Amino acid sequence: RETIAKQESLVNLGQAARTLTHEIKNPLSAITIQLALLKKTLPAKHAGELKLIEQEIRRLTQLTNKVSDFLRNPLGKPVVVDLNELFNSLVMRFDKPIRFSSGSPQQIVIDVDRARSVFENLLKNAVESSNTRDPQVEVRITTDKRNFVHIYVMDRGDGIRVEDSKKIFDPFFTTKIHGSGIGLSISQQFVKARGGNIRLYPRDGGGTVAEVVLPKSIHTAKLMGVTR
Predict the structure, then answer these.
(1) Distance between CA atoms of residues 136 and 127, nearest Å
(2) How is residue 203 annotated by DSSP?
(3) How confident is the model over 145-193, as pLDDT tens digits?
(4) What pLDDT does residue 11 have?
(5) Is the entire prediction scored with pTM above 0.85?
(6) Cα first-last separation, the chain
(7) Would you put residue 215 in left (φ > 0), alpha (ψ -120 to 50) or beta?
(8) CA 178 to chain centre
(9) How distant is the alpha carbon of residue 198 from its chain centre?
(10) What is the largest CA-CA distance in the chain?
């Protein structure tokens, strides 16, 4: 029953994502046309504002394209990704300090955009895990004997309620006022498509651990029988 429920959730996620991308693309097309007209009619002094609108339109267009791409192919185009470089660039995006430590250079084979999406989402959740204190976000990377990389995103936030623990990967489930709940669900699909696993669990002493396990190579995933 749980497996069927999860499959139904994925179907619902796919249908909702297709509907959203379609509904977003239509007004974006209309806005793009109107923007072209404004460029021709407005004085040059408004060029800065129009450029900003154009940049935001481009950003939304890229977002809808990524969702469409995810629905077609969650695996993407795997390449060698240096996790140290990736996290060093990601932690700079947040206004709260994030401790990052890795014993040695770590590389995995994964689609770059999907990797960035997964870990940026986990870092964002950790940074926002408490509104009253510093969540003390920390990232650690290790490798096990099976040649799998374990990425831990840890915080000292408010933690996950017991009643929510089985729903955190459900599409559109969220405890945030301004959240959509789609981030963890999509992250899970990206990780599973790559032959890995993702789980969230309570951290000793309070807070949450988000653990992502990924094979270093496609060959490793096939040997362990975890590829799709």
Answers:
(1) 8
(2) P
(3) 888 999 999 999 988 877 776 767 666 556 554 444 567 878 888 899 9
(4) 63
(5) no
(6) 21
(7) beta
(8) 16
(9) 12
(10) 65
